Amino acid sequence: MVKIGNVDLGEFPLLLAPMEDVSDPPFRAICKEQGADMMYTEFISVEGLIRDATKSVQKLDIYPEERPIGIQIFGANLDSMMKAAEIVEEAKPEVLDINYGCPVKKVVKRCAGAGILKDIPKMVELTKAVVNATNLPVTVKTRLGWDENSIKIDEVAERLQDVGIKALSIHGRTRQQMYKGEADWTLIGKIKENPRIHIPIFGNGDIDSPEKAKLYKERYNVDGIMIGRASIGNPWIFNQIKHFLKTGEHLPAPKLEDKLKAVRQHLKHSVEWKGEVLGILEMRRHYTNYFRGLRNIKYFRSQLVQENDLDAIFQILSEIENTYCEVQV
User: Fold this and answer.
1) Do 42 and 20 contact (CB within 8 A), yes or no?
2) Which class for 40: exposed (0-12), middle (13-18), buried (19 or more C-beta within 10 A)?
3) Which pLDDT score is estimated for 325?
4) Which of 166, 187, 190, 168 is nearest to 177 (CA)?
5) Verdict on whether the full-model pTM lies above 0.85
6) What is the DSSP-derived secondary structure letter of residue 141?
7) Do 201 and 222 form a contact (C-beta atoms < 8 A)?
8) Burial of 44 (0-12, 13-18, 19+ CB in 10 A)
C-alpha cells in the first residue's frame, strides 16, 4: 500500500495534478467520480493567502466527497510560506503540497515555482520551514531541473526527504522545456532505484493512455502516476487506466450521453461555486476537450463559448444531444 503519512492511497494511486484554472472543485468532483485516488487544488499564492485575497482563500474550499485531497501552495518568502502553512492546516486537507514546478514566467521571476530550481539550498530551507510549521504531511511537486545543464533531481529528492517531506511528484521535464518535447522518465526511475529513498515517488508527464500508464509503471517502478492535461475533458482516464492495469482490457469509450452528463454537472457546479458570470466564462475552456473527436461540432462549440445565459447554454447542450443522438465518440 502507498501511504503519504497516514493517508492510505491504495496499491498504485492515480493522482489528479494541480492545474491552475482547471483543478477546481467542480472539475475535481468529476475526476473523483471517475477514479482519481487523490487530488490537488489549484496552486495558491502564499502572499495572496496571508493577505486574505479572495481568489486565494476561495481555493481552500474542500468538499467531503473530494477527500483525500492536498492543498498546494507556492511562494519564495520564508515567513510567508510558514504563515500560509498554518492557514492551510486550518482548512484541514489531508496533505500540504509545495509547488516547485510551475514554469510560468510570472511565477518563476519571483523565484517561486520552478524558479527555485536555480537555488536548491533555498528550496531545502523553505521546505524544512513548512514541514516544521504544520502537522500535515508535506509533499512536493517539482521538475527535473532548471535546464538540461542543471539537473539535480537526485540531490533534490534526497535533501527534501531528509528535511521531512512524505512524498515527491516529479514532472519529467526541465523548466526550460515548459511542456514541449517528451517527458524523460528515466531520471524518475533512477530516483526509485536509489536505496536511500523510502518516500513514495510519483511520476508525471505525458501519461495519456492506459497503455502508457502500464508501460511506465512497469518500466520505472514508480509508486503512482500523476495525471494532468490528459484529464482535461477526459476525466474517464482514471478508471480507464485502473481497469487496464487490472484486466489488460479497455473500458468502452465514453458515449456522447456520458460526455453531456459530465459537461452539465461541471457547468452546474462551476456556476454554484464561482457565480454565474465567472462560472460560465471559465467553463468555456473545457468544451473543446469534452467534445474532441465529435464530427462537425464546431458550430455548437462556437455557440457555447459565446453564450452568456445559463439556460441558453443548457439548451445548446440539449440540441447537441438531439442532433447526434446515438453517435458514439
Assistant:
1) yes
2) buried
3) 67
4) 187
5) yes
6) E
7) yes
8) buried
HEC sequence for 224-241: EEEECHHHCCCCCHHHHH
Give pLDDT, residue 295.
86
pLDDT digits (tens, 9 = 90+) for 205-245: 999 999 999 999 999 999 999 999 999 999 999 999 999 99
CA distance 214 to 306: 40
**Equal CATH topology for 3-247 and 256-324:** no
Which element (helix H / strand E) includes 204?
strand 201-204
Catalytic residue among 31, 102, 111, 325: 102
Identity at 170, one-letter amino acid code: I
6: which DSSP letter? T
Domain 256-324: what homologous superfamily?
Putative flavin oxidoreducatase; domain 2 (1.10.1200.80)
pLDDT tens, position by position, 151-206: 999 999 999 999 999 999 999 999 999 999 899 999 999 999 999 999 999 999 99
Q: Look at the block and give the residue holding cell 493512455.
A: 209
Domain ranges of the chain: 3-247, 256-324
Which residues on adjacent β-strands are paired with residue 71?
Answer: 96
- Secondary structure (3-state) at 96: strand
CB 102 within 8 A of CB 43: yes
Please indicate whether residue 102 is annotated as part of the active site: yes
CATH fold for the domain made of 3-247: TIM Barrel (3.20.20)
Q: How far is CA 72 from CA 6, 40, 139, in A?
A: 18, 7, 9
Mean pLDDT computed over 293-319: 94
Confidence of residue 296 (pLDDT cuts 50, 70, 90): confident
CB 209 within 8 A of CB 180: no
**Pairing relation of β-strands 69-74 and 138-143?**
unpaired
**How many other β-carbons are positioned within 10 Å of the β-carbon of residue 299?**
11
